[in-house]
Amino acid sequence: MKDVLCNLCGQDDYIVRYPATLDPREVNTPDARAFRCTSPDYGRHARIVQCKKCGFVYANPVWDETELIALYTGVEDDTYVTERIGRQLTFRRHLEALEKITGPGRGKTLLDVGAYIGVFVEVACAAGWDAVGVEPSEWAVAEARRRSLPVILGTLDAPALQERQFDAITIWDVIEHLPDPRAELEKAFARLKPGGIIAVHTMDIDSWMARLMGHRWPWFMTMHIQYFSQRTLARMLEMSGFEVVWTGPQGRTIRLTYLSSRLGGIFPPLGRAFDWLIHRLGIAERAISINLGDLFTIYAKKVA
């Protein structure tokens, strides 16, 4: 691991907000399973600090970028596949919100960054977008291609993207994993057409839920190394050349059986009790919408 500067203002002046909860073995040899999208390792994280100049919250120290890319390249996550229905419902709502800004997608191009198994790409294509995804996990790309979905292996640096520009770029639940999010936003800026829209979805460190739960907030996890608020993400987008159009809380839709597994990761007895109850009632596969206010989406426009 290495010490890093604040990715928002570049300073090296911080307070420790939460000490690391990983043991030395996990620090030196991170378990790739902790980097799955559906990892239940809530509360296990590197040291979390807050910049004294700009207020940005981030993990410090963190793993080397090369090591992180290797970990994500090797990720396999069958649990995500079983939750495909919930993801589709969530992404349909995300797309509806996006299209309120972009208009209908027919005839327009879209790039989904960190596309995983391509669920949002599938939803966007079905709605008429000329959509493509990019994803570093070899397993996830193979899963997407098995369903004939256009997902490129790699990152925004992939050669296949260098000569292309898009009407919209989406970054769903990805920016919190990136070692240099500002650099990625600048790359996204270059990949957008003038007037194009970027949508970024992540956790809100300044939400009432995060403040209420403190160090028990479940989004403090090994794989999360950047913790944005709506203010700090808006500032980073503006520094990258964007003009913020809208920002606000945006939840998700999940099956009750998946919710029970998430509860089990936070508090096992509660998870087991909830799982027993929903199976007893025969509602385990029912999908529900959840919005606790600690997830948000920000939309911004390329103005130059």
How many β-strands, per DSSP? 13
The biggest beta sheet, please?
7 strands, mixed
Question: What's the pLDDT, averaged over the residues?
Answer: 92
**Outline:** globular
- Strand content is 15-25%
Biggest sheet, spatial arrangement of strands: 6-5-4-7-8-13-10
The number of helical elements comes to 11
Radius of gyration: 19 Å
Q: How would you classify the quaternary structure?
A: single chain
SSE class: alpha/beta
Poorly predicted ranges (pLDDT <50, ≥5 residues)?
Answer: none
Q: What share of the residues lie within helices?
A: 25-40%
Order of SSEs: EHEEHHHEHEHEEHEHEHEEHHEE
Roughly how many Å apart are the termini?
37 Å
Describe the structure.
The structure is a single chain. The chain has 304 residues and is an alpha/beta fold. The strands form three sheets. A seven-stranded mixed β-sheet has the order 6-5-4-7-8-13-10, with helices on both faces. It has a four-stranded antiparallel β-sheet with strand order 1-2-3-9, with no helix packed on it. Helix 4 packs across helix 5 and helix 10 packs antiparallel against helix 11. The mean pLDDT is 92.
